[in-house]
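Revision sheet: structure tokens.
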Amino acid sequence: MRTIRTLRRDDEGTAVIEFAIAMPVLVAMIWGIFQLACLFWANAGMQNALGAGARMATLCQGGTSTVQCSVPTDTNISAKMNGALFGPPDGTFTVYAPSAGTGYKDLRVTYQRQMTWLFVTGPTITLDRKKRVYTVS
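Predicted:
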């Protein structure tokens, strides 16, 4: 009986037990923040590519006051967007060919990534960004 009372009052090792309970939660939260940061990184790369494509699409190359300017081709715009992409290498970026309307072009970039939480595979996340650019007609 006396041994049981002594063991109840003994608090040696409680810090190790608390650490063992809290550490997996802390590591999972830090890993989740890292995964979210990778999505923000990819979003920044997509926005950069759309901006570069929009700048390229609105250029009027070779124009003077008497000569008509030449508008960049869709291939040139897509190449410029591909060159401006950056982000995590474990996802897939897709640059779509610009779709044209009357006086504008629609630019689109997507990013797909399989999310992971340490030992568990999560859902596939798809980011989709679009930009409408008004061009010289």
